[in-house]
Design goal:
- The protein is an alpha/beta fold.
- It is about 40% helix and about 15% strand.
- It has helices spanning about 20-35, 55-65, 85-100, 115-125, 165-175, 190-200, 220-240, 250-255, 260-270, 275-290, 305-320; strands at about 5-10, 40-45, 70-75, 80, 105-110, 155-160, 175-180, 210-215, 270-275, 295-300.
- An eight-stranded parallel beta barrel has the order 1-2-3-5-6-7-8-10, surrounded by eight helices.
- Strand 5 (about 105-110), helix 4 (about 115-125) and strand 6 (about 155-160) form a beta-alpha-beta unit.
């Protein structure tokens, strides 16, 4: 089975770097990923975070669409409870009109009251002219006309989640679905199987499920180990209430780990794939097969943006992405 790779970019901020540096690094990474053969590139939404710079994924996605030519660009994701569905639909309809066939709209339920999330997803879908799905009580909602300015090729709609609830909802509503293995690896197999079962009963056309995995690789095992140590220290601190920029490899090696930090690192290492490119490829192919997916969305966090670019370059080489052609459903329409 051919495994395709995509990118989930959280615009990480390293110690000694600014948020502006991180955003510029995201643009540079997207340009490189486009040339390397990655299928899609998603940017995340975080607020009030010293470690992540991306607060407005719709603006960053628009910039990346103008700076790339081949990849699909989207969000991983827009935190829908924070916004009115009409505004989200209008923004992404504009992006899709300017860049037909290249826009993904990933939606997350975090950031506000989640009770209305299923209805909000349906509202966005119908406003974009995608329909409202057949599950989740769609028939009880008042009809909504599509946007007057709806794009001829609308965005592809995705739900994002780390559990079975979001997977089931994506199946019911007939959207594509991305499972966040890097946040909660254990329920992934069950969640994706439940998604596929729900999707089979929906009235929408074929969609797909992907797995988002946190990966760090490098030219040597020693360097990969150092990058992983830096990432795990950052994640341990975050879990313990210290939201800080990513430490350097040298700082992580000098750090005197507390018992609590070490315990969190042991847990978080289970959701991290790291090592030399060959070792990483073997583990990623096993994950794809176990979860029944043919595409992995790779999330890599490093202190120095150069290490992040190199990690993606090595993945592209070991998976021979330059020799892959994007699936027909993910290709932009040919220019007239």
């Amino acid at each position: 089975m051919t495994v395709r790779l995509s990118v989930l970019d959280q615009s990480p901020v390293g110690e000694g770097f600014s948020h502006s540096d991180a955003l510029r690094a995201s643009v540079e990474l997207a340009e490189r990923a486009d040339a390397l053969g990655f299928t899609r590139y998603w940017v995340a939404e975080h607020h009030h975070s010293p470690g992540f710079a991306g607060t407005a994924p719709e603006i960053l996605a628009g910039t990346l669409l103008s700076r790339t030519r081949r990849m699909r660009i989207g969000t991983g994701g827009v935190l829908l409870p924070r916004y009115e569905p009409l505004k989200v639909a209008e923004v992404f309809s504009v992006l899709a009109s300017l860049h037909p066939g290249r826009v993904d709209l990933g939606l997350g339920r975090a950031g506000g009251p989640a009770a209305r999330f299923p209805q909000q997803v349906q509202e966005v879908s119908r406003l974009l002219g995608l329909g409202g799905g057949q599950g989740g009580g769609a028939g009880s909602l008042p009809p909504l006309p599509p946007l007057v300015s709806a794009a001829e090729v609308p965005p592809r709609l995705w739900l994002l989640g780390a559990g079975t609830r979001s997977a089931a909802l994506a199946g019911e509503l007939g959207t594509s679905f991305a499972f966040a293995h890097f946040l909660a690896p254990d329920p992934g197999v069950v969640a994706l199987e439940g998604y596929r079962q729900g999707l089979a009963a929906s009235a929408w056309g074929p969609q797909k499920g992907v797995l988002a995995v946190r990966v760090v690789t490098a030219d040597t095992q020693e360097r990969a180990d150092g990058l992983a140590l830096s990432l795990l220290l950052w994640r341990s601190r975050k879990d313990l209430g210290q939201d800080r920029p990513l430490p350097s490899v040298d700082a992580a090696r000098r750090h005197r780990w507390s018992t609590a930090e070490a315990e969190r690192a042991a847990v978080n290492s289970q959701a991290l794939v790291t090592g030399t490119p060959e070792r990483v490829r073997e583990e990623l192919e096993q994950l794809a097969a176990a979860h029944g997916v043919d595409e992995l969305v790779i999330n890599t966090l490093t202190h120095d943006p150069a290490d992040r670019v190199r990690s993606y370059e090595l993945l592209a080489q070991v998976f021979d992405l330059s020799g892959q052609e994007a699936p027909e459903a993910d290709r932009a329409p040919a220019a007239a």
